[in-house]
């Protein structure tokens, strides 16, 4: 059985907030300094920030977070950066799913949980700028604790040099923790972000881990932080490189079709989406990842 981990929970939650603030500031800068190319003569968008609240079945406080969404920008068509810290008691279905996945004994006897994390999805105006996803999180129960998360790139028009840059930044941050981490987490991402019913990946991969616990909390937290720190240097240069490219109607059509794949994956397979809806979190925050427009042919 674990301890209550109060200090560790506070530190993890504070880190996710810090990372959120860094990303929101960087994305608003990308909006404001877009000086040339398509849509650059429009008005720069900013994030709309709102609190999310969660209640237990008995009406008591069960946590919440911040939902930050920017829509209709010059660079970002829709981007959400959410943080949350939630707690309470796992319902029967969530208990069963977690016990089956992790083999944790005692869940029925003491189904308390605490979870905190950051989740980000960006859908871009310019089809040459890749969509992207990132999340990191910590989960605690009285019986076990673990970290998870990663980031992956989802271009509709692929550029090999962009893919190489994104992966190189991930590897640079992971290698100090052990040179086995990057190839292992890359392979995990390739498996996790695969769409079986389409027989294809949803993007060009990245890194991903779940249920990560070596029983050294400081070490595992440091790894999780570096997964988060890798995100901005991996992604922001790609936006700056591609946002001024002209696009055609065919490019935009390809983007909308690719977004359909993204929506299918998130609604059918994504573990975070399922957990958020199962535990009663704000549905708008949970489904923030869905694109504003998509197309199926």
Verbal overview:
It is a single chain. The protein is an alpha+beta fold and 297 residues long. It has nine helices and nine strands. The chain has helices at 6-32, 92-102, 160-174, 181-192, 217-229, 231-242, 249-268, 271-278, 283-286; strands spanning 48-55, 61-71, 76-89, 112-124, 131-141, 144-154, 194-195, 200-201, 205-212. The strands form two sheets. A seven-stranded antiparallel sheet has the order 1-2-3-4-5-6-9. It has a two-stranded antiparallel sheet with strand order 7-8. Helix 1 packs parallel to helix 6 (231-242) and helix 3 (160-174) runs antiparallel to helix 6 (231-242). It is globular.
> Can you give the helix content as a percent range?
40-55%
The SSE order reads HEEEHEEEHHEEEHHHHH
Number of helices: 9
Structural class from helices and strands?
Answer: alpha+beta
Low-confidence stretches: none
Instruction: Count every beta strand, where a strand is a DSSP E run of 2 or more residues.
Output: 9
> Rg, please?
19 Å
Molecular shape: globular
**Intertermini distance:** 51 Å
Oligomeric description of these chains? single chain
- Strands of the widest sheet, in order across it, are 1-2-3-4-5-6-9
- β content, as a range? 25-35%
Mean pLDDT: 92
Instruction: Let me know the largest β-sheet.
Output: 7 strands, antiparallel
Structure characteristics:
two-stranded antiparallel ribbon, about 300 residues, 7-stranded antiparallel β-sheet, alpha+beta, globular
Q: How would you summarize this macromolecular structure in one to three sentences?
A:
By secondary structure, the chain is α+β, with helices and mostly antiparallel strands. Helices cover 41% and strands 27% of the residues. It has nine helices and nine strands.
């Amino acid at each position: 059985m674990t301890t209550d981990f109060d200090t560790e929970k506070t530190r993890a939650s504070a880190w996710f907030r810090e990372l959120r603030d860094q990303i929101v500031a960087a994305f608003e800068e990308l909006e404001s300094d877009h000086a040339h190319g398509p849509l650059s003569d429009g008005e720069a968008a900013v994030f709309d920030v709102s609190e999310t609240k969660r209640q237990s079945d008995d009406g008591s406080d069960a946590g919440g977070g911040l939902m930050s969404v920017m829509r209709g920008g010059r660079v970002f068509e829709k981007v959400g950066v959410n943080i949350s810290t939630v707690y309470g008691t796992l319902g029967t279905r969530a208990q069963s799913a977690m016990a089956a996945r992790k083999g944790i004994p005692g869940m029925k006897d003491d189904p308390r949980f605490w979870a905190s994390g950051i989740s980000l999805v960006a859908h871009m105006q310019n089809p040459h700028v890749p969509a992207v996803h990132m999340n990191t999180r910590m989960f605690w129960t009285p019986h076990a604790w673990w970290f998870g998360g990663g980031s992956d790139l989802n271009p509709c028009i692929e550029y090999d040099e962009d893919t190489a840059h994104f992966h190189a930044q991930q590897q640079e941050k992971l290698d100090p923790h052990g040179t086995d981490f990057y190839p292992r987490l890359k392979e995990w991402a390739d498996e996790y972000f695969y769409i079986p019913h389409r027989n294809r990946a949803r993007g060009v991969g990245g890194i991903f881990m779940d249920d990560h616990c070596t029983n050294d909390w400081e070490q595992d937290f440091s790894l999780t932080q570096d997964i988060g720190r890798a995100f901005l240097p991996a992604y922001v240069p790609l936006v700056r490189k591609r946002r001024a490219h002209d696009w055609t109607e065919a490019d935009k059509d390809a983007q909308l079709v690719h977004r359909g794949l993204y929506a299918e994956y998130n609604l059918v397979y994504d573990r975070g989406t399922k957990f958020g809806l199962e535990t009663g979190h704000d549905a708008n925050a949970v489904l923030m990842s869905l694109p504003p427009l998509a197309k199926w042919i």
